[in-house]
Structures are given as C-alpha cells and as structure tokens.
Amino acid sequence: MKAHSIASLVRPCIARLTPYSTARDDYQGELGVFLDANESPYENGYNRYPDPHQAALKALISPMKGLPVENIFLGNGSDEAIDLVFRVFCEPRVDNVVAIAPSYGMYTVAAAINDVAVREVPLGPEFSLPKAELLAAADAHTKALFLCSPNNPTGNAFAREDLLELVEAFEGIVVVDEAYIDFSSVPSLAAEVRRYPNLIVLQTMSKARGMAGLRLGLALADAPIVRLMSMVKYPYNINEAAQRLVADLLRQPIDDQVACIVQQRGVVAKRLRALPVVERVYPSDANFLLVKVRDADAAYEHLVRRGIIVRNRNRVLQCAGCLRITIGLPQENEKMLQSLAEL
Ligand SMILES: *Cc1c(COP(=O)(O)O)cnc(C)c1O
Q1: Are the C-beta atoms of 77 and 216 separated by less than 8 Å?
Q2: 343 contacts: CB under 8 Å, gap ≥ 6
Q3: Which of 83, 207, 214, 313 has most ligand 1 atoms within 8 Å of CB, for mutation?
C-alpha cells in the first residue's frame, strides 16, 4: 500500500478537523508564568495539565523501541489506540473492518461502539493465519484488518513473513497487536512501520512491563498515522501521574521476570499435560496457556471455589472446552495445578 493512499482511508470529518490546541505549545520553558489554562497556581505536584505530546516519556521510549518519536503514539492503554483506529478511519454504518476470530474482544467492542461492522474470519487448522480468507473478506469499504500476534486467547504467534504478506497485500490499515510480544520467540514487527505506511503495531505496558494499572499503550506507525491519531485523541489522554510513573518504572529491567514467566510456562504446560482432566495444552508464545479440559465450566467453578480465577473460554469460537490460564508466580501456578489435579 502506498503512503499517499493513507489519506484516502481517513474519514472526511477527520480530514477536515482542526484539532484542539493549547497556548502552552507557544512556550517551551519550564519557568514561565502560566496564566493560560485556568489551572490552580498552588503547587501540589499535579496542579498543571500534563504534556499533551508526552515528550519526555516518548524520548525515553524511542531508543527502547529503536524508533523516532514521530513513529510513536501513546494511548490510555492500547484500548484507546484500537478505538482511535475506528474513529480516524471508519465511517459509522458505512465502513467495515476484518478481524481474525477468535481474538481479543476489544476489536469487536470498539467496532460496535463506533457502529462499524466486523467481518470475522475464523483461524485455520491449529489456529493458523487464514491469509487468503482474510483478503477475500475485504471489500471497497474495508478500512482495517485486525491481527494479534501472539494471539489472545489462542497463544500462538504468526510467522513474520505471513503477517508482512498481509500488510503488503491488504488495501487498508493493518493492525498487528503485539501485547504479548515480550514472551514470544517471534520477533516484533515494530521496525517495519518505517517501511509500510499502512502498518500499526500495538504494544502495551500492561503485560510484561507490569503496569496494567497505569494504562499506557503504544501504537507504532508511520508518521502520518501517528499524527492522525494524535489529532483525534483527547488532548490530555495520558495523565501526569502515569507519565511520571511509567518513566520511573521503565528504568527497571524486566528481563529476569520475563525469563521466569517463559520458563514457568514450559513447566506448567508439561505438568498440565500429565493431569487426567487435561485433554490438550496448546503451544504458547504468550504469558498464558490455552488448555482444553474435560468439562471447562466444571473446572472453572472448581477453581473459583478455591479462590483461583482463570478465564473460561468455553463459549468462544474454536475454544470449546478451553480455559485460558495466566502464568503467575511459581507458588500460584502450583496452587492452580494442585487444584486441577483434584478433578
Ligand atoms: C491485554 C491486551 C491488550 C492490552 O490492552 P491495554 O489497554 O494496553 O491494557 C491489548 N491487546 C491484547 C490482545 C491484549 O490481550
């Protein structure tokens, strides 16, 4: 897809939009007399509006991702970025998107809220990427394709060549949600946003980075897409506390934690396979396992009664009989395994 054709995908009302501007953009210093925003002048650490451009945080994230700040959009969770894809590109009741199924529930929720149809394409055998079917599902009103790798809830990652083949062939925005990429043996597509004007790679601080409570998601994309999303977002979408705390926490390495979770994933998968109640443990590139059990509802209830909460995916397409179990601390995993062993 060519760079100039991105403009043709944008909703007319967004193409016409004059975004909200703040007077503070006219002054870069720290020590000014700020009488422009009707804030309280009494310092308490949070009396000023936060930086709408999140310059300090982006400057910190940029070298970590190996991308210039012009390729980085920060959202109030990746959920905000998902919603913005609809708000920027999809005309309600006119346009549609294509998505793999089963996958992350927010694609269909955000679509429904924006009154945009989702054409769900079931994954192939062994949760493989149905490339031809995804392309065939698109028509002249299809604005975006939602892919998730490693995929939630199936746990598998798709081959990089297959994802890029879709990015090249698809005549619209391709979103590749990499929420679980830190746990995967398949490398990120983040660097590819410099080569493909229609690619949006979503990442999040919520999973491996351990900041689900702070709400920070990344959309990595070519500069024109980042500019469009920045124009449409709420001006102060990332609050001051989150901007500061994420920056602080990003200075702490997580390599040991990720290595431990990946190691535990292998141990737990093996132990689960030995249990009578377990019929199948699917391969995982994420921090969870999709596990097929004899009676998923009964197993789920049994775990809840022991204070262990997992995700029951029994009623999800292609996941009948399945629980999605997050990898926790070794002692938490042990407790879950012992409870399932009682069945
Ligand atoms: C958990 C998850 C996210 C994270 O969303 P945030 O809003 O950043 O917390 C995004 N995508 C997928 C597929 C997820 O499973």
Answers
A1: yes
A2: 275, 276, 277, 293, 294, 298, 299, 302
A3: 207
- Name the one residue in this structure whose structure tokens are 């990003």: 250
pTM of the model: 0.97
- Per-residue confidence band for 2, with pLDDT thresholds at 50, 70 and 90: low
Q: Which helix (H) or strand (E) holds 54?
A: none
Determine the Cα–Cα distance for residues 59 and 189; give it in Å rounded to an integer. Answer: 20
pLDDT score for 3: 60
Distance (Å) of CA 154 to CA 99, 109, 110, 185, 308: 14, 19, 21, 16, 21
The residue whose CB lies within 8 Å of the most ligand 1 atoms, and thus the one to mutate among 204, 233, 246, 311, is: 204
* pLDDT tens-place string over residues 191-223: 999 999 999 999 999 999 999 999 999 999 999
- Report how far ligand 1's centroid is from the alpha carbon of 63 (Å): 22
Please tell me the total number of residues recorded for the chain in this structure.
343
How many CA within 13 A on the CB side of residue 328? 12
Q: Which residue has the tokens 């506390």?
A: 241
**Alpha carbons 324 and 341: distance in angstroms, whole number:** 17
20 has a pLDDT exceeding 80: yes
d(C-alpha 43, C-alpha 289), whole Å: 48
Protein residue with least CA distance to atom 2, ligand 1: 179
Q: Write the pLDDT tens digit of every residue in 320-341.
A: 999 999 999 999 999 999 999 9
